[in-house]
Fold each of these.
Amino acid sequence: MAQEDVFKKVVSHCKEYGFVFPSSEIYDGLGAVYDYGQNGVELKNNIKQYWWQSMVLMHENIVGIDSCVFMHPTIWKASGHVDAFNDPLIDNRDSKKRYRADVLIEEQIAKYEDKIEKEVAKARKRFGDAFDEAKYRETSPRVLEEQAKRDALHERYSKAMNAMDLDELRQIIIDEEIVCPISGTRNWTDVRQFNLMFKTEMGSTADGSMTIYLRPETAQGIFVNYLNVQKTGRMKIPFGIAQIGKAFRNEIVARQFIFRMREFEQMEMQFFIKPGTELDWFKQWKETRMAWHQNLGFGAENYRFHDHEKLAHYANAATDIEFKMPFGFKEVEGIHSRTDFDLSQHEKFSGKSIKYFDPELNDSYTPYVIETSIGVDRMFLSIMCHSYCEEKLENGETRVVLRLPAALAPVKLAVLPLVKKDGMPEKAREIIDDLKFHFNCQYEEKDSIGKRYRRQDAIGTPYCVTVDGDTLKDDTVTLRFRDTMEQKRVKISELRGIIEDNVTITSLLKKLK
Ligand code: GAP
């Protein structure tokens, strides 16, 4: 199946099976805002738990907080967001559509990369086992030509972005003959800066109100609380503070479903360290976070690091963990070495000392910070895209199955009475009443067993049990496995032991190195 089709199918599957709905749908929706349905919220909660527990339970020097969306507006002045949290935008005069100039150029770079990959794939097919890919990439005139174009564009683009040279960004779009995907024309406006923060008013009277912002990242809530946590928790450097919460950005281009939203959720951890040790810690957190992702079993080839050339104003090293989505490798998580930028800025703007007293050095200093920041919704999307599978069965039928890691699946066990009579529904409910304390169970009695299995496959339920006439005599049930569709007869008393170990977040955490 073409990757574009996979993505379209994932989007409609999310809606059809209660994972994600467009927000305010009966009012025709609201751009780039989505709601999570009954299955989506379970999957999302499981992702959050996997992250939270891997941070807070697995590290004795990491604790969590929950700070507010509303914060003092000077915080955003100090952090640089009021002045520098901008994207370069450009409009097409014919379609009246607005784009991010940097995204248009990055898509053009990706087109060159695509062409190279297609050439290599064609050659791989032509030469079979004898294919020497490295040599082909070094010598094929067509590959070299596309590579040269890609590299030249990349260099010019990086320079323009580093200098935030808006005229040059526009000129690149013109020179590369980039057209608007809607109108097909090159009738572009100038490039302008656009601040991404949402503003609102706090206070009831016109004179007494103040303009505040919806937070565009959760991180600042950690920075301004770091000394509270350090003192009340008697934390010693190195230590971390983790937080999960909503963030808001008025994205210019909000496309690709839940990949880029205006209201989204972040899981961020700030790790406070001694200045000078940041590059070692940066390396360590890169490895730790990549291991967390790969532990889900989606294959190492689907992840890569993308080290930043253009560093944000606060960072001295930065990388993204990218996942292979149906629309290419895309950022899911950012890892930044943020130096002492944020804490120093808050000291300056608040006029209060927030230095750490190091008892070992008998000295005070402003800690450096390594940040890991991951979007819950992007993680959700990557998991859905990778798990969605259409499978041809021996009988010629196709089944849609969500091969979710069992620990993340919304429902762990579906209990299905073969028929709605003869005491089977009561027996099925008895099983659920016993197991519901240990994992999420669902009761289903409508339609044939085959249809019910398909519905559970489609929401990724790893186990189904069928209660039939024999169950009432010998307390055994048919246990069916989602991925293999294998069925076996087991005692009801054995169910918990077979299932529990494979479906808990603990089972995932235990596999983490
Ligand atoms: N505190 C650092 C920070 O916010 P970021 O790279 O801007 O860094 C971190 O964001 C993560 O948040 C991204 O890797 C992405 O997963 C998620 N994210 C950012 N903007 C998003 C958006 N508009 N919609 C969904 N997720 C987003």
Amino acid sequence: MDSAKPLIHLLATGGTIAGAQNAAGGYAAAVMSGEELLAAVPQLANLARIEPEQVARLGSQDMDEAVWVKLAARAQAVLDEPATAGVVITHGTDTMEETAYFLNLVLRTTKPVVLVGAMRPATAISPDGPMNLYNAVAVAADPAAVGRGVLVVANDEVHFAREVAKTNTTQVGTFKSLNRGLAGLVHRGRIHFFGPTVRRHTADSEFAPLGGTALPRVDILHAHAGMRRDLIDAAVATGARGLVIAGVGAGNLPAGALTACRDAVGAGVAIVRSSRTGGGVVERNVEIDDDGLGFLVAEELNPQKARVLLMLGLTRSTDAVTLQALFQVY
Ligand code: SIN
């Protein structure tokens, strides 16, 4: 090993980047280990010394709070080692944005943490994983990535955890940062960073390092024409402590559902209005009297990221004003 190269820890969790295609055209995620992914890209030795570790082995549809807590603990432990330059996490693309945003809020570090995945399995024709992995290690090993928070690298792009969303079911260009734009570009390991992210993260986050408090249950409900109140009532009745509504347009919802949300607040459940549109800001008190009803708005966070922030926020407070302030800071 070349000890002059930066030390990068690779935490592998599975996903399509570790997937194997079958003869029928389907595939299984999370088949290959982190070690096998590294072996497929020998050029990585030019960038860094890499220590792989298998933290989980799943398709990211099965990522949950328990794995997040385990992953955060392992990432924090290796980041706290003085010799570590950065961390790369291989992850399925389906829920990568949620894991990235969670880690962005709970890791106390300024060192680079980069999530990477792929849209094509490792054994497919023209897999995108090897180049994505090469670029991710290049970013994690770059001193210019220090202090930028958790990043996502795919398809020659670098995204901030807060901004990135998966927007396409199959295309390699699935990740977009629609509201505030890219963190940078990376081409065959050459990196061009753009401006820093404006919101608080990692070393400055009040949620970092992650404590032992259990994450409360927060559900997401998708609004639609004709939405009834039943599912909102059911979530409250079965123990949700918070609800994120993926509202229509600027976070709106039909009258019956709105009444159910008002009743939920009365029962002590936090309600966050977000948007199912994929872009833009949900503002307070436009068509809906948020102040009067005790609702929160997600601002630019998509429903799945609003859920992450609400879960963490509820470990500290149930006060609507305190919780709303988090959505203006993170
Ligand atoms: C997954 O999220 O684990 C499957 C899809 C992918 O990684 O692209």
